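Long-time lurker. I teach an intro course on protein structure, and each term I like to show students one example going from raw sequence to a predicted 3D structure in token notation. This year I'd like something fresh instead of my usual example. Would anyone be willing to generate the tokens for the chain below so I can use it in lecture? Attribution to the forum is fine with me.
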Amino acid sequence: MNLKRRIEEAGIDLPEETLERLEDFKQHLMKWNRIHNLTGAKTVPAVEEQIFDSIYPLVFLPPCDTLLDIGTGAGFPGMVLAIAMPDTECTLCEPLHKRASFLGFIARELGLENVTVEARRVDALEPRPYDLVTSRAVTDTPTLIEWSRPFIGGRTHLLFYKGEHVFDEVKSLTHCDFELITRDKRNYLWIKDASKC
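-- Reply from a regular --
Happy to contribute to a lecture. Here you go:
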């Protein structure tokens, strides 16, 4: 099943222009990855799975005006979400230079005026509240929450893309209002009011 059909069947309604941008992103990533080794996803199906994995939370997430993605890597999930949410101001934090360079190239090439790439560690960012803080495959949940604290405001949501270890990690989230959404082997940890964590 191709990526466009998977997105449609998940109930995610994206304009044709957005779908074209996702296709352009995929093509550029495949080309850059052969030279710079940006991600372990080397085949078209593998990259399409990463894109779908990144975009799937649009099924349940409320709209947001600002987003911070911690450790964007080759663009998952931050760049994919930025493409899918053009009205959301997206800050992509990625300290590795070659990956940050790729993200900057994509933002310019696809005309993504809603994207800012920060080529530094998250603890070097200026504190400010965001509506949504995301992260995928970076570190454990308690550490991600600590890294997120300078960016939590009164209505901040956290969304962490997690594997099977999340079931042990959430045992410490006694004060958090969270939901675990599971799709295949992916677990999306959605903390709905980060100010309570």
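Some talking points for your students: The CA atoms of residues 86 and 172 lie 35 Å apart. The two ends are 39 Å apart (CA to CA).
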